[in-house]
Amino acid sequence: MDHLEKSNVQIRKGISLYFTLPIFSWALYDFANTIFSSNINTIFFPFYLQEVVGESEKLNQIASTFISYSNALASLFLVIFSPLFGVLIDRTGKKKKYIMIFTVITVLSTFLMGVLATNQSSYTIFGLPFALAAVILFFVMAKFFYHSSLIFYDAMISDLGVKEEIPLISGFGVAIGYFGTLVGLSVYLFIGDSGFHKAFIPSAILFLIFSLPLFFFIKDHPKEAKKDERESTFLSGYKDILLTFKEIQMYKPIFTFMVAYFFLNDAISTTIAIMAVYAKAIVGFTTGMFILLYLVSTISSILGSFLFGYITKVKGAYKAVKYVGYVLVVALVIASTAVNEMMFWIAGSMFGISLGAMWVTTRTFIVDLTPIEKRGQFFGLFAFSGKVSSIVGPFLYGTITYVFSDYGNMASRLALGSLLILTIIGLIIHSKIKEPSVIQ
After folding, report:
1. What is the pLDDT of residues 290-301, one digit of tens each?
2. What pTM was computed for the model?
3. d(CA 64, CA 69)
4. What H or E segment, with its residue span, contains residue 23?
5. Which CATH architecture fits 18-222+238-438?
6. Which of 93, 256, 404, 421 is most open to solvent, judged by the fewest CB atoms within 10 Å of its CB?
């Protein structure tokens, strides 16, 4: 926020930076929402669908299609609304208020997934059993509001420190977040290798509990809205967005990065969504083996987020984003050609590094590139870019697995290989951006 950027605040180092109450509370929200991301989005919802739908190689591909399309539908709603959320931040300065609202809705939706999954009704909706259709519907709602909260959460980082501290704060948040994965996965001990819907309610409760420090210990920094903004409707925010697009020449590096981010995020968000089913169906992992793999990749994410926090500080966010892309390319090559478990262990660890590092580097690069007065709007637009890609990637993956489902597991290999092409395109576009120090 500008009150921090303009003041001559002494830069904090080490423990004095990380364990101030606002920063630690902010980081704990990353801990909380990562429980949802890992337990629901990545592991137990895909396992639930595979348990309910998949009974053969072909049906496993159909389960992958359900997973991909439900993720794509949630992202479609995010595409519509995420730019408006960014404008809302710039107009009001309020972030915590909306984080709280969206978190509570996410928690309730996830809780209802667990309740409805046990429904034994014989009714069908669009040819699907009622319980399955209802769980998918509430998953779409939960994912939409979860990602909506992250727009406000990511923008909140500029309220917490001066520019020089942002890379380290960002890395700390991501690292603490992945410790949340370790806590979230503890519910597996009470579930075992079937009945994966039993993870939904505990995951919702854990998400809420660890969100509470942010609710209580971080203050919003509301600002006085201009007269025309007070009289404007929520949807009128599209006018502000269109004006920003018309000024594209003034913000060319930002828009170029938004396109690059589209392709990079496309690859990584789709990989996260299908990783569990891919590991079980293609490489032959049991549920327990995948949980162990996910723990290892989570540790890799923690190390990667801290490491890339310092790489970003030393080399700059521009170079750091490029390095993350290289790691992702190698991971996708290994995963799509994996013929044994060891290859996927290596790929899974590299996915973990690239996932943690992607959050650290891109969030910092956005702060580097954006003017203070439009920062919320650009965070919203980057969320827009990410969510458009989150439609395209899962839709592409799901379509490939559906079209080639008669070929069994080869369909998933082809689908994952398509993400490699998207990553390379993203790196090429990113290379067209001048580093911030030489941007005019």
Report:
1. 888 888 888 888
2. 0.71
3. 9
4. helix 21-36
5. Up-down Bundle (1.20)
6. 421
